[in-house]
Amino acid sequence: MAVESISADWEFDRFDDGSQKIHTEVQLKNYGKFLEDYTSQLKAIEEALDDSIGDVWDFTLDPIALKLLPYEQSSLLELIKTENKVLNKVITVYAALCSEVKKLKYEAETKFYNGLLYYGEGVSDTSVVEGECQVQMGRFVSFLQELSCFVTRCFEVVINVVYQLAALYNSNKGATKIIESSGVHFQTVYEHLGELLVVLITLDEIMENHATFRDHWKMYKRLLKSVHHNPSKFGIPEEKLKPFEKLLLKLEGQLLDSMIFQVTMACVEQRFDYPGEGVSVSKNGAFAEEFAHNIRTIFANVESKLGEPAEIDQRDKYAGVCGLFVLHFHIFRTVDKRLYKSLLDVCKKVPAVTLTANIIWFPDTFLINKVPAAAKLVDKKSVQTIRSSRDVFLQQKAQTLTKDVQSYYVFVTSWMMKMEAILSKEQRTDKLSDDLSNRCNVFVQNRAFNHVSCLQGILYAYSISTIIKTTMNMHMSMQRPMTKTSVKALCRLMELLKAIEHTFHRRSLVVADSVSHITQQLQSQALSSISTAKKRVISDKKYSEQRLDVLSALVLAENTLNGPSTRERRLVVSLALSVGTQMKTFKDEELLPLQLVLKKLDLISELRERVKVQCDCSFLYWHRAIFPIYLDDVYDNAVDAARMHYMFSALRDSVPSMLYAKHMESCEQLLDSYDKEIMGVFTEHLLDKLCKEIEKDLRLSVHTHLKLDDRNPFKVGMKDLAHFFSLKPIRFFNRFIDIKAYVTHYLDKTFYNLTTVALHDWATYSEMRNLATQRYGLVMTEAHLPSQTLEQGLDVLEIMRNIHVFVSRYLYNLNNQIFIEKTSNNKHLNTINIRHIANSIRTHGTGIMNTTVNFTYQFLRKKFYIFSQFMYDEHIKSRLIKDIRFFRETKDQSDQKYPFERAEKFNRGIRKLGITPDGQSYLDQFRQLISQIGNAMGYVRMIRSGGLHCCSSAIRFVPDLEDIVNFEELVKEEGLSKETQRAASLLDCVLSDLTSNSAEGTEYFKMLVGVFAQEFRSVKNMHLRNFYMIVPPLTVNFVEHSINCKEKLNKKNKNGAAFTDDGFAMGVAYILKLLDQYQEFDSLHWFQAVREKYMKEMNAVVKEQNVQATNQDEKLMQTMNLTQKRLDIYLQEFELLYFSLSSARIFFRADKTAAEETQEKKDREDGGKADVASSEPAVSTEPSVK
């Protein structure tokens, strides 16, 4: 705007002082610096926010990227402008058709190939629901309709291209010539036509190899038949069915019979045999010759490069040549036998061509089927040789694959180093041309040194990609098994492929800068060649229409090259030079360099796109069965574990193509299925194996003192798994797979869980944690578990349900009020104390206490039944009656004490009645029965103590138990709502209950005595009255058992060891109370008799020692000492039992007999009545006082 306002005088006087140029350079420099700073800031932010950025970046996540492919904003009409109007039209028509072909090819490759290939994927065979196949096909019909339209469009374009070419090469002498075409060969147009035919061939091959699709189609047709018979059931109007059926028949005929190409050929043949447009095609000899000439020329260019190191896209062009050959045959009905044989001979060198993904195409089969007339000319032996060459190819590949991998490994790594070296150097202005040539060569060109091909850049990518695709797809197509060695080698090649792609991506900024300069340099070289040719044409004064065409074409090529190297401009240049190279405009030594420069220009201009296509590993989706083998190999060779990044990058390549899947409700379902499958395999074949191996290594290292397997690394080998933990996290879909974090979590979880099971092992697991940190760098989490016990213990509910098991497996300690497990398979014994019970009661509520006592009552009933049977036994009863009679008769002589010898004799005599297989007498079993009854009573005592403990814990926040305010009254005074009053009332009730419970508790012992006492003391249970007499033998038996158990504590085999069993004392006290026999038992003065007996024996031993001391007989002295020690132990055990029994009797009020308790109860009741009576007159006298 400012420039327009300047006056004319000032405009005239303006001059250039160079300041604008300096200012521009400064701005560009500042912008470049800004971009660098911004990129580094983004990277710093990324690393700060997420520590899990992988070595191999996901291209789709680039925060900023450079798009190298130039975009053409001018239309073809604007580009193709010369003074030669006819030439303009010809070039414009062909350029437009070629552009249309490219668009159709792109649409097919992205949309239609992928849509068809992924049909039926993402659904496992086991999870297929009835009718799911038909639903998938129903969703897919609209896609097939689009494909039908696309195929029709391709057919129209093929027809149009043929017509346009036929119009230019017309053998009819009467027809006007558009331009002189005798030396003009539009090879580019034929190449594009070949590409379009390859698209149709590919669609045919996909359909032919898609068994799932064909099966689903049949099911869908059957479903439609069912609908046709009963349309009302499915809610479909009948008039809509017929058009739909016609559409399906049309789709089936056009697409599903794998006849897309064949039908196109038939239509072409039919159309050209009866020309309606006025252009002769099938009878056009000049066109037929031109068509054949171009096929031969393209084939000659392709054949020389096929299988060579410099091969880039020749295989695709070979497929196009085969398509063109078949098209030529169908139009002109002639066969070039020599060319046909040459085409077949190529199959020996290139047995198959990968068209897309897992679709492999065999040219020999195609040519024999599509050109039956020529097939008759080839002998069967040759055909057989070609087919057998496929197997030979696979065998050779299997042998040479490992060697190829090693070669390519060296080539690619050296190329990557060269890339880094050249691209990191600063460009020198004085040697800019040489520098750009070097960079161009590193990107695309191959040079030969001493007859050894040093492949570079994209050539490596193409060669590696071809080997992988051809080998894998041929094995799959021919159903030949692949060795593990081959699989590993192919995986290595895939890694190299991705390494090439990532090298280009990593240096994308420098590559982008170089590409623009290289493009300009190549354009300059091409313009120089064209300028030389143009001068040569101008200098020749013999003007003719043909010469004018050549000049116009050269001018057009020159004008088009003066601009960005877009696809459209390069296409126009190629078409223009098809006209401009006739009449020997260029010398032979000029034409070849020009063609080479233009080829380089094609490659450099589409460098990023070509790298992406050649390094694309989306085909791996169809060969994902190799992934487990690859992971096993990585696990076995942990040293280069970092290569997994490349494999996951290859697995990610199939994600963009999956987005075109149309058979599911959403393509997300297919992606989720793929994600789960790959992660499942990765977890099974690497992560889980790694976790278990690390855990095993840590365990063996910690337990080296146990001298387990030989772990000498020189004998058994060594696998350093620490390499896996130095890997940066791997990106896959929307997650980062952090191997180090996964293993750390696994070990943390395992160590924690196992420590909770065996708390005494905490030190071992702590040591393993420290070792994991030292050896593998794993930062473990401390378990923070107590080293011995948890307060919860066994649950009251669990004990209550299995009280019969509990009382037999646990031993009671009266003084500490604790239960200890008898034996355990673990290294520790479980204990149960008041805190455990209190915690359980707090969990389940105080109501559980009464239920527990009720269960105990049921248990005691069963045990007392066995008790009664034992006491009723004739052998037992008779012995007891005999002992009672004996004691009554001799008590005066024995100082009212029951003789110890009599009890001992009873204990031994019972053994004569028989013993169990494990060596126990009937008295042993009776003792165990009483111990179990005592344990049950001990458990009831613990329940009461636990309840009091729980109540006192619950009420500890009440400040004064003697003075608790009434909340309900306070709330009423404040006039609060009814809901608040109800809540206050409930609070009062709770506080009242807690206060009473914490103060008193329930007398469970009294209840359990009361419920059984009457029955025990009844006349029908007279046999139980003898119980007090069996107590002395029982105590002798118990003491022997107790000493035996305590001695086992010091032995290695601790089976049966114990240090307490107060259940016996508790049981004896309880039963004596039930039978009201405390006085009878006390009358035996049993424990006094025991004490006297042992004291007497000990005094005798001491006297004997004094006598023997003078004789100095050491052996006898040792025997005496041992005897004294044994007597001391026995006496101590009897004393402990006496104390325990005395303590237990206190619980059952042993100071009072049943008669005294009854009298006390009667007195209490009488006292209560007296109180009531004394209070009644006071009430009645109240009126008289008034």
Write the layout of secondary structure elements.
Elements: H1 8-13, H2 19-49, H3 76-79, H4 85-117, H5 132-168, H6 187-209, H7 211-229, H8 231-234, H9 238-256, H10 260-273, H11 285-305, H12 314-332, H13 337-349, E1 353-356, E2 359-361, H14 363-370, H15 372-375, H16 380-424, H17 432-443, E3 447-449, E4 452-454, H18 458-477, H19 484-506, H20 508-539, H21 545-561, H22 567-580, H23 588-605, H24 607-614, H25 627-636, H26 644-652, H27 654-658, H28 667-702, H29 713-716, E5 730-732, E6 735-737, H30 739-757, H31 762-776, H32 796-801, H33 803-809, E7 810-813, E8 818-821, E9 831-832, H34 834-844, H35 847-872, H36 874-890, H37 900-911, H38 922-954, H39 967-974, H40 978-999, H41 1004-1016, H42 1027-1048, H43 1063-1075, H44 1078-1082, H45 1086-1111, H46 1114-1147, H47 1154-1180, H48 1182-1185
Antiparallel strand pairs: 1-2, 3-4, 5-6, 7-8, 8-9
Helix pairs in contact: 4-5, 4-6, 4-22, 5-6, 5-7, 5-9, 5-10, 6-12, 10-12, 11-12, 13-16, 16-17, 16-18, 16-19, 17-20, 18-19, 18-24, 19-24, 19-26, 20-21, 20-23, 21-22, 25-28, 28-30, 28-31, 33-38, 34-38, 35-38, 37-42, 38-40, 38-42, 38-43, 39-40, 41-43, 42-43, 42-46, 43-46, 45-46
Domain WASH complex subunit 7 central: 619-962
Pfam families: WASH-4_N, WASH-7_C, WASH-7_mid
Protein name: WASH complex subunit 4
